Amino acid sequence: MKPRLFTPGPTPVPEETLLELAKPVWYHRSAEAKAILGEVAEDLKYVFQTAHPVMVLTSSGTGAMEAAVVNTLAPGEKAILLTAGKWGDRFRGILKAYDTNLVVVEQPFGKAITPEMLEKALAENPDTKVVFATLSETSTGIGHDIAAFGQIVARTDAILVVDGISGLGAMECRMDAWNIDVLLTGSQKAMMLPPGLAYIGVSEKGWKKIDATPVRSYYFDLRKYKKSIAENDTPFTPANTLIKAQRTSLKRIRAEGIENLWARHAKLAQATRAGVQALGLSLFAERPNNALTVIAVPEGIDGSAVLKKLEKQHGFKLADGQDTMKGKIWRLSHMGYTDAFEVLGAIAALELVLAESGYTFEIGAGVAAFQKAYAG
Ligand SMILES: *Cc1c(COP(=O)(O)O)cnc(C)c1O
Predict the structure, then answer these.
(1) What are phi and psi of 293, to 5 degrees?
(2) Are domains 4-9+258-375 and 15-256 of this chain identical in fold?
(3) Is the peptide bond between 10 and the residue preceding it cis, with omega within 30 degrees of 0?
(4) Residue boundaries of the structural domains of the chain
(5) Most Cβ neighbours (<10 Å): which of 72, 180, 192, 267?
(6) Does domain 4-9+258-375 have CATH number 3.20.20.140?
């Protein structure tokens, strides 16, 4: 059986990138390694849609989240956290670990934070230094209106930090035009690479705040990374094999063009939603994003058992809900190196398993609706 990966991280990696990963390991301070990092840093600016340098960290995405917290906040300073799921909650944990005076604006799983909620929180807390938001809440499938958040925060002295993990490279996000001060992502979601690298860009307003904040981390001190990246270098030994492979995946993204890539994900997401709804299933996210589709498990169906069968019988690996959402949702990723015909296959396989589980619907309805939506 052919294994097919549909989890919202890690995601499939292009063949030419996998071949790059098979090559011999080389010295990370060589002229060649620096030239490669230089190219990667340039192409990352393109993906981030920023003129500011983007720094490369050897860590998972959470490392970049921690870097964003520890570099922008002194102990006791006030931050507003906008959270609507597991990944917003990860910021909560990091912010607590660094003694932040935390104001939490929260929505239940499946719902999105509105710009009005942010406006109100900022009006009530004029001493806020940093606002934390999530572009794509991968645990529920919702997307946030970061452009609107950026406009609101830009009118204040606070800076806006955005967790772009899973969203960046799958849905529209423009760091400079949207007034994002710190934007971060990880390599294993829409960046078409295995796990292991994280990327972080900082605006001028962001650097001003960082430069006025005491250093509290050695490994994640962003000033060090800023100094190094100006010379196409990193302060510590980087995962240079991954950086080289990222160059290959970034070339693919550049060749497609970022706007075409956003449009491709939008079309794929729309067709997936149509397919799922034609099966009588409902979407879990009230404001769905284009990186993944999250499906509410229907009454009387054992959600986790369906996913196990999908993998065992047909090779399709989708993701379950996390923590309290386990068994209640199915998460199907269509970000990065995934095409329409693979997603069509996933819907077809889901139909077969659902039919076996006693769920009533017309077999083929999801596949037909996907095809019709995709044809436009
Ligand atoms: C996956 C994910 C994370 C966690 O990243 P790790 O690489 O697992 O540390 C954080 N935020 C979002 C939105 C994610 O999708």
Answers:
(1) -115, 130
(2) no
(3) yes
(4) 4-9+258-375, 15-256
(5) 180
(6) no
The whole-number pLDDT of residue 141 equals 98
Per-residue model confidence as pLDDT tens digits over 119-136: 999 999 999 999 999 999
List the chain residues with pLDDT less than 70.
none
- Beta-strand runs (E) in the chain: 4-5, 54-58, 78-83, 101-106, 128-134, 136-137, 142-143, 159-163, 182-186, 197-202, 282-283, 292-296, 316-317, 319-320, 329-333
SS3 34: helix
| pLDDT score for 365 | 98
Task: Tell me the C-alpha distance between 335 and 221, whole Å.
Answer: 31
**Cα separation of 168 and 185, whole Å?**
7
Q: Kindly report the protein residue whose alpha carbon is nearest to atom 5 of ligand 1.
A: 61
- Residue 268 burial (CB count, 10 A): 24
Q: What is the DSSP letter of 136?
A: E
Taking the C-alpha atoms of residue 138 and residue 333, their distance in angstroms, rounded to an integer, is: 9
Contact criterion met (CB below 8 Å) for 6 and 338: yes
DSSP secondary structure, 255-306, as one string: HH-HHHHHHHHHHHHHHHHHHHHHTT-EES-SSB-SSEEEEEPPTT--HHHH
Chain-centroid distance of CA 43 in Å reads 18
Residue in 86, 90, 322 to alter for ligand 1 test, most ligand atoms within 8 A of Cβ: 90
pTM to 2 decimal places:
0.98
Condensed to tens digits (0 to 9), the pLDDT of residues 268-323 reads: 999 999 999 999 999 999 999 999 999 999 999 999 999 999 999 999 999 999 99
Query: How high is the pLDDT of residue 275?
Result: 98
Model confidence over 227-262: pLDDT tens digits?
999 999 999 999 999 999 999 999 999 999 999 999
Instruction: Annotate 97-114 with b (16+ C-beta within 10 A) or e (fewer).
Output: ebebebbbbebebbbbbb
Q: Best mutation site among 65, 81, 138 for ligand 1, i.e. most ligand atoms within 8 A of its Cβ?
A: 138
Please state which CATH number belongs to domain 15-256: 3.40.640.10
Alpha-carbon distance 301 to 359, whole Å? 8
Q: Are strands 282-283 and 316-317 parallel, antiparallel or unpaired?
A: unpaired
Q: Is 83 in the pocket of ligand 1 (CB under 6 A)?
A: no
